What does this fold into?
Amino acid sequence: MIVLPGDELVNVRAPRQYTYLKDGKTYAAVLGIVENGTFTPYEFVYTPKLGDVVVGRVIAEKKRVAYIVDLGAYKTAVIMTRGLPVKIKIGDVVMGKLEQSDEILSNIRVLRGGALIKINPSKIARVIGTNGSMVKIIKEKTETSVYVGYNGYIYVAGKNVSKAIKAIYTIERRAHIRGLTDFISDMLEGEKNEE
It folds into this structure.
């Protein structure tokens, strides 16, 4: 269901920064959608949070103590070099988890042999789908590996990278419609039959 600014949100989970209270009732402050009892803004700027899994690009090394990672957000993340089990260089795409603070990345994985794309972070939940259903369809029908960061960066590698990317951008554009999972499944199935 599409929600306009000023619409009342009843029995809906919603991030506080995108709502306001008036006379004891909660209202949407921005355009968004309600799905499965959760309000998601149509667009928002990613704010790093403890525990988030993110994807980013290594943009600098700081005095051989840490690597600086661009998250496409208002601030960067840091990978400490001490005890790092993987080799990293500037330009590498990495995936990790924001731990200890909202700036330090751990559980680092270097992603190679694919393509990095960015979508609006507000659409990431739709790309993942309920219990991972959407991303699973993309992976299976395109024979790719898809690494999704809550910050809006997505890394795709495998057999049909361009098809997977097309599906992801379609999800971003059509995130507000119902039946999107079936639409994407049919779209990818149709392209598969054309090969």
About this structure: Residues 85 and 108 are 8 Å apart (CA to CA). Helices lie at 124-128, 133-142, 161-173, 180-194.
